[in-house]
Amino acid sequence: MTERYLGIDLGGTKMEAVLTDSMMSPLVRRRIPTEADGGYEHIAGRIAHLVSMVTRESGVPVPRVIGIGTPGRYETVPGLIRNSNTLCLNGRDLKRDLENLLQCDVVIENDANCFVLAESLLGAGREIVGERGGTAFGMIIGTGVGGGIVCGGRVLHGAHGIAGEWGHNELLPDGEPCYCGKRGCVETVISGPALERYYCSLTGRSRPLREIAGMADRDEAAEATLCRLTAQFSRALSGVLNILDPDCCIIGGGVGAIGRLYSRETVTLIERHLFSSRLMIPLLKPQLGDSAGVFGAAMLTVKH
Ligand SMILES: [Zn+2]
């Protein structure tokens, strides 16, 4: 039988499903509101509704396994969702409950892992990772800072399920407290809100980061904010590169859209901290946009 892959990108406000053929071409793609206010059981019911919607429309049975990407982490032991911003999912065994509801296997990964899986195999890293089987380090730098690793065509999950979570490495000793309980994490320095706070500390004015990034040529504080981003991003990333030495890096999220992260200036800053004298791998902008999450979720179910 021809393989079909079904992935769901489960967000706090909307959930999206894609059913693909064996070449990852979409057969049906649908998006519905999550209705998270309805609580945990309601969300599980919405997922089941979405699955029956796409399978009915495509005329294929529910696949043996369904992939789900969502913010937060699913800890295999004891089998619970943690750190999800859809709070009613936390502490619940979404995998087991959906498997009972849908009568199929369910794979759950965090959204950063789905992002790097799709971008490295189908998007920005396609030639380096998809075709040559290399290693990719993918980052999402936005409201938070996450990351994931794809190696040999698969997500590297890790013993604790935290592989690639560079956002909570300590960057500034005695820095700002982080929600994770530690201080000075990468996320508290280079996330969008952290950079906006920095700009505000210099000027007393609140501006969205997009605006700050656009006025660096005529505003000293905006320039200082971007310099802080590139300097601290370089320090944080070089620590990852020294350990993983990937074949490419893919930088997603709102902060990842800032052009200066891909400049020669940033590469020089990285080289200052890197164990090797030259950075020989590309820093790539994502290519799949919104689609990375849902296609990455579908790709979780591909057997190797
Ligand atoms: Zn932290």
Describe what is shown at a glance.
The chain has 304 residues and is of the alpha/beta class. The protein has 10 helices and 12 strands. The chain is globular, with a radius of gyration of 20 Å.
Would you write up a description of this structure?
The chain has a 5-stranded mixed beta sheet with strand order 3-2-1-4-7, with helices on both faces. The protein folds into 2 domains: about 5-115 and about 290-300, 2-Layer Sandwich (Nucleotidyltransferase, domain 5), CATH 3.30.420; about 125-285, ATPase, nucleotide binding domain (Nucleotidyltransferase, domain 5), CATH 3.30.420. The protein is built from 10 helices and 12 strands. Helix 1 packs across helix 2. The chain is an alpha/beta fold and about 300 residues long. Helix content is about 35%, strand content about 20%. The chain has helices spanning about 40-60, 95-100, 110-120, 125-130, 185-190, 190-205, 210-215, 220-245, 265-275, 290-300; strands at about 5-10, 15-20, 25-35, 65-70, 75, 80, 105-110, 135-140, 145-150, 155, 250, 285. It binds zinc ion.
